[in-house]
Amino acid sequence: MSTNAKLKRGVGIAALVTIALTFWLGLVVTPPAEVMGNLVRMLYIHPPMAWIAYLAYGITTAASLLYLWKRTRRREWDLLAAASAEAGVFFTGLTILTGSIWGRPAWGVWWTWDALLTATAVLFLLYLGYLALRQVPMSETKRGVRSAIAAVVAFIDVPIVHESVYWWKTLHQTPSVLNPSMNVEVHGSMAWTLLLGFVAFTLAYVWMVWTRFETSKRQAKLVDLEVEKAIRERLAAEEVRI
Q1: Which of 14, 53, 187, 213 is the most buried (most CB within 10 A)?
Q2: Under 8 Å between Cβ of 59 and 52
Q3: What is the pLDDT of residues 169-213, one digit of tens each?
Q4: Where are the beta strands (DSSP E) in 173-219?
Q5: Rounded to the nearest 10 degrees, how much is the dihedral formed by the CA atoms of 143, 144, 148, 154?
């Protein structure tokens, strides 16, 4: 096993262990909150998932900008952008799901057209559209450029999602962790469990993107080999006719 494979495997194992530990601490060790009771246990996974969605779309945007700039245009940036976007869509979906589970006992409904929820749903659809655009048949460069532009435009919704609870009157509470003042409103064992949740899901994101990126590179190489083979066969056929 290569060093790269061992390192990726180590990241994957670390992600599994820390996620399991986060769930154990969140469900068994930490106490219920004075106001929210056991509902506070959603805090240990919901904000970390939202953070990963932000991180994933940030990486997608950065890689897309590097692909759009001709001096740094490389296939790897396009593949990284796609891999990170896939992880972002996955974690955005989990964010919406866990938010709905929290919202049912807190608000009495699974879903409401709250500003934050609506903006998050739009973000989810925007990046689903980005992934769909990548499946449209076209040349590699054209697909990369169009997808990169779509990714940069879609990222505009990320700050809207984060700031929506401040800009509009919303049912959703302001962030307990990712707030402008960085004043964490969680303490003790609850704070350490929440911090572990952020680390755990970040490791999971790294492993997912790493794995998807390597798979995409192998697929791209196989396509290149098939194209080269087709060209050689076509040239050989033409020589026979001559």
Answers
A1: 53
A2: no
A3: 776 666 655 555 555 566 677 888 889 999 999 999 999 999 999
A4: none
A5: 40
